[in-house]
Design brief:
The protein is mostly beta strands. It folds into two domains: 35 residues; 130 residues, Nucleoside Triphosphate Pyrophosphohydrolase, CATH 3.90.79. It is 11% helix and 37% strand. The protein contains two helices and ten strands. It has a four-stranded mixed sheet with strand order 7-4-9-8, with helices on both faces. Strand 5 and strand 6 form a beta hairpin. The protein is elongated and about 60 Å long.
């Protein structure tokens, strides 16, 4: 099943992502091409408050042409650990700080064409901090109970985004302690290790 790389050609370098075209040899010997979006590592968060509510963010997404309800997320800076990025993104997007941070999953967001590798955390022991959104971000925060997740947003916002794995995490009742490498479900396979431990910085997903 392994595809042998023959040639790789980067055809676009952007602020958010790069695009390359790889020539590979299939197991039967035929040659074909793969279009690959290069995107650095990222983190996503399910901020769980003491009263059981969860903080989500709402923002307009140009590719979807809609306002989406999502769990907070963002990119990992060069030299930054996923845990440090999680604390930073939590403060930047939600104005919260966490006394505890549980790593519950790690997964490719779109392995068919994109190299982005995301770490999912559950921050608890939450308190107020100062939000510092990026200059081009316009984010609203909203707290929901687990029962109301999926019912609070209008139909136009009820789309599959990175919120999906956060909701799967909630449904898997993963708020109890568990090992950081245990897969939560078939949609969130966890590789043996992070394939991009030193990914270059890319802007927030």
């Amino acid at each position: 099943m392994i595809e042998e790389p023959i040639e790789s050609r980067r055809i676009y370098e952007g602020r958010v992502l790069n695009l390359r075209v790889d020539t590979v040899r299939l197991p039967d010997g035929r040659l074909t091409t793969r279009e690959v979006v290069e995107h650095g590592g990222a983190v996503a968060l399910v901020p769980l408050h003491d009263d059981g509510t969860i903080t989500f963010v709402r923002q307009y997404r140009t590719p979807a042409q809609a306002v989406l309800l999502e769990i907070p997320a963002g990119g990992i800076d060069p030299g930054e650990s996923p845990e440090a990025a999680a604390h930073r993104e939590l403060a930047e997007e939600t104005g919260l700080r966490a006394s505890r941070l549980e790593h519950v999953a790690a997964f490719y967001t779109a392995a068919g064409f994109c190299s982005e590798f995301m770490h999912l955390y559950i921050p608890t022991g939450l308190s107020e901090a100062t939000a510092h959104q990026d200059d081009d971000e316009n984010i609203e925060t909203i707290r929901l109970t687990r029962r109301r997740i999926g019912h609070r947003e209008p139909a136009s916002e009820r789309k599959r985004t990175k919120r999906r794995c956060g909701r799967l995490e909630i449904r898997c009742s993963a708020f109890s302690s568990r090992g950081s490498t245990a897969p939560l479900c078939g949609d969130c396979p966890v590789p043996d290790r992070d394939p991009h431990p030193a990914s270059p910085r890319t802007p927030r997903p």
